[in-house]
UniProtKB/TrEMBL annotation:
Gene3D superfamilies: Jelly Rolls (2.60.120.10). Residues 63-214 form the Cupin type-1 domain. It is found in: Secreted, Extracellular space, Apoplast. Oxalate binds at N109, H114, E119. The keyword Secreted applies. Transmembrane segments: none annotated. This is Germin-like protein. Keywords: Apoplast, Disulfide bond, Glycoprotein, Manganese, Metal-binding, Secreted, Signal.
Length: 225
């Protein structure tokens, strides 16, 4: 009996250690300022690091998130990011931020997913209808109407959206659990891929006439990021 208990404990410990090793390791230095010049850099988490002695306050700083984004586009929204591309010091820290502006009467941040991050969003102006859909086979929709001060969480990898149902501009800020969360806008990826996906594939997948698929593929799919 003791042998069986030891074996079970050993297996559980092995599984636990495997799960731990699957996550990103913690940084081994105070900071890693991302740079594009590889001459004097060390490659860490997808970016080359500046020599810490050469870091400045500007590497930790980004102005301008008080400036509204231009929502005069097909979807009526604009995402202004503050990730490792804009703030090099975010490299290895596992966090980033976005400002999202929505036009009145239907400004939409279209259904999309972040493959590497959970998102927590707070509304500061306006009224938003938000939601996300769980994975197969449930495909369950969680949705809520948000007002200023309300917070909503979109789990990592889940398809989600925000839609302005009010008559005024709306503004939200969202934090993401990655310095480089990535974004896949569903319609853009499916109907605007380069090269295009075979129309037969999409016609069968969406149960649509092939001519409708070709019409959708011929459209310009706006990227609000």
């Amino acid at each position: 009996m003791k042998g069986v208990q030891f074996l079970v404990a050993f297996v559980l410990l092995a599984l636990a250690s495997k799960l731990v090793s699957a996550s990103d390791p913690g940084p081994l230095q105070d900071f890693c300022v991302a740079i594009n010049d590889t001459k004097d850099g060390v490659f860490v988490n997808g970016k080359f690091c500046k020599d810490p002695k050469l870091a400045t306050a500007e590497d930790f700083f980004l102005p301008g998130l008080n400036i509204p984004g231009n929502t005069s586009n097909q979807v009526g929204s604009m995402v202004t990011p503050a990730n490792v591309q804009q703030i090099p010091r975010l490299n290895t820290l596992g966090i980033s931020l976005v400002r999202i502006d929505y036009a009145p009467y239907g400004g939409l941040n279209p259904p999309h997913t972040h493959p590497r991050a959970t998102e927590i969003l707070v509304v500061v102006e306006g009224t938003l209808s938000v939601g996300f859909v769980t994975s197969n086979t449930d495909n369950r929709l969680f949705t809520k109407v948000l007002y200023p001060g309300d917070v909503f969480v979109f789990p990592e990898g889940m398809i989600h959206f925000q839609f302005n149902i009010g008559s005024t501009n709306a503004v939200a800020f969202a934090a993401l659990s990655s310095q480089n969360p990535g974004v896949i806008t569903i319609a853009n990826a499916v109907f605007g891929s380069d090269p295009a996906i075979n129309p037969d594939v999409l016609a069968n997948a969406f149960q649509l006439d092939q001519n409708i698929v070709k019409q959708l593929q011929s459209r310009f799919w706006w990227d609000n990021n």
